Protein 1
Amino acid sequence: MNTRVIFLAVVILSFLNGLALAQGSIASPTEKIVDVRYSACPVSGNPVKPDIGEVYEGKLYHFCSMACLEAFQENPKVVIARIKEAQEFALILKNYAGELPIYCKVTGKPAVKRIFLIIGDVITFYCCADCRESEVKSSLPRVPGIGGEDELRHDRH
């Protein structure tokens, strides 16, 4: 009987430990995230920037600045209520392995919910902006350059 109780306690503690993620880590145990797309920032009214956003309750919301993102973090439900003319698109979460936390594919560290890259219908989360930027550079098409070295091609025709 004591063995079962101890086993159950270990299972419960392991589960709770998995939920106690690092601050800002992804906490949505799903392989899909809904990208909520709209043109005007719900905080300031300025045009949103696609790379400034955060996941809240399985949905990705975008903002025009870090200040507006911080306002969202303080009171997300009020900010969400201000969103107008939004469309929702399902994104496939690339670096979700069926368990939490989600890890950065570059460093293996826990990913942060506000640092991401969307390519097509796939979203990948990273631990820091440097990892995201390295992925941006590696995803650009390459063309042969002078001296046999490849050069990044910034125009995607």
Protein 2
Amino acid sequence: MLNTLIVYPIFGIIDFIKLRGKMICAKDFYHETEEKRTKMRFPDFIIAGAMKCGTTSLHNILSSHPEIYIPQREIHFFDIDDIKQHPDFFIFSNGNWYYPQYGTNFEKYLNWYRAFFSTAHGTQVIGEDSTTYLASAKTPERIAKLIPDVKIIIMLRDPASRTYSHYWHLLRTGRAIHTFEDSLRIMPGTLIQRSHYKNQIEKYLKHFSRENICFILFEEFIQDIQGTVNEVCQYLNVPNDGINIHQIKTHYNPANLPKFPTLQLWRNRLMKISTHPTYLEHLLDVPHEREYGSNNFAILMDRIHSKINSQKKGKPPQMNPITRKFLNQYFSQENNGLNELISKDIDALWYKDL
């Protein structure tokens, strides 16, 4: 069936990949002629992040344009072996490590990456989005070496709000085991790091000209979605009359919140965290879950928990005002100079209460 992901564990490689509702056999793709592979295109633009800044909404709005092609899900090709950004991609099971070997098997991964765009029409502008690209130190140089003329889109948001939204994402997906304030102290990790915009953007500007990067502020985006989309279309050289936001859904990633957040924290602490199947579908060097086993008891308990503590769409509770003030002060220092880098007055939007 076309809508069913079929995975055959052959030599530890996932041989079938689901792309835009079409089954592509990765193993067969590796054996295509070199002439056919070289004709395949790379993206014309990349939405590089940041996470929780409206990238999913922009992705889906742009994908409705008939002259734009974007694969449905994030690919993470350029930072697939960055353990800081993707600890879920590194699996230790039965005494063995399974992880993406980008450097060792580059040609395999390159052909795999190209396959995501194989069903684009010849005249379509091709894009992709992976929200960790901005935060990954590995990514800017890798993109510049492979696609030096690619256009980069970077979406930014008030870093305190982005960090708080990120925390609730980690909570509902089983990865946050402390309260928000304790997480900031004990294991801030990517929670804080992904809001260090200035250092991340400086790395991109070492490899791309300012004209090759389009900056979008989340706060301006939600105030004028159509205007922002028109600007992006102009930047990508596609007609802006191909998208009417009044005719399409514009909010594609509303938050799902557990009914009892404290119970969710206990669940996260007690339950074994396993790699989500979504990630396994497109990692070439990681075997399917059935090869490295699964905890059936944990799965059963998780199902019981989901019945008791169901998730529903909604807004998180307001952040503690003292915590917000602390984060505003912290990020205003960490991102000092960002105004000049992106030519936008972020202080008036993000730190007006300081």
Protein 3
Amino acid sequence: MQKTLIAAVAAVVCAALLGASGAAATESPVVATTTAPEFDAGSSSAFAEPFGENYDFTSRWTYSTGYDAAGESAKFAIVPAIWRQDKVQAFGIASTEPGKHHTITARLSEPWSMSGTTAAGKTLAIFFTAQAPGRVHGDTSSLRVRLYGKDTDPLTVTRETPYIASFGYDLAPPAERHTELSLWPRGLSAPLAWRDHKHGRPRVQCAIEMRSHSYAFFIDFSVQDLPHFVEFDQYRYSQRGLRRFLAPAARARTGGQSATEFDAETKALEQWRSEELPAVLALDDVYFVGIDLVDSRVGTVVDNVFVGRSAAELATFRAAVFGAQEQQIDREAFEAHLAEEAQKRREVQAEMERIKEKQEREYAEYLAKHDKSEL
């Protein structure tokens, strides 16, 4: 029964993406509306976008032409998605062309001051739900929800456009599933990225099956250590100060270092944080919210985009969208799964080390038995 339901929904998604024919063509035409479904975001200044069936989101969002010259632009489509436990489907925006940027930007009803004296000017919350289609080895997906300043031109936005804050993920099953988080404080020439103690982006779990999952990020700029949390389906990965994990974006994606290189880089980053990272991160005022999605396999559905300035606003929006039906993972089972994956990685690394040592030993024995001049 469950497989039949999933197959039926998948058929609807395909029809929406590729254009239904036959019997569907005889149905009455659907008239798009410019009004999004009503959701209480908890604040008149908070930005909430639940999308919805028959909703003409282009009345609020502007497509970027920044990738047109390279032929890398594509349009979203409104499609159904399975994202609530008490409903078979809802509707969000989905990618329609593989390998191309689906990029849209919307203006806030009023700009936000991120350097104000009130609590609302010192905290930030970003939330979205996303449903990835069934993926196989080699498939990739990259999603960003970004905040932009006053001087941003929605028509020219690309991944290289300066921004204020960015939250999203990069998926490359089966192993690479990274959460992307970066901030671009005023006065810095490049953004700051979140980089864990292993000198890479955090491997926060990201789902790849055909069901929508929620992603949330919250940060408090009023405290120098920058307390924050990141959640996946209400599973909270981090609730520590973010400052100790910030690094220049160009240095946040390195890997494959030796122990000596790792130690040297760790000391260099500690020195950078103490000498060059501003004590107070001053952010520009926020005027725009943007979404950028690139899929190697079309069909990722983005929905329920929310940007607010307090954890209370975020909680209010989530309750309005999901009620008590937001998917929540089994924490104990999930932590056991993560521990099992970590153990498997350690076993693979240990086996690789054994193979390397064996090869080096055999090569040394070969050299000992043969004249090096013969080699």
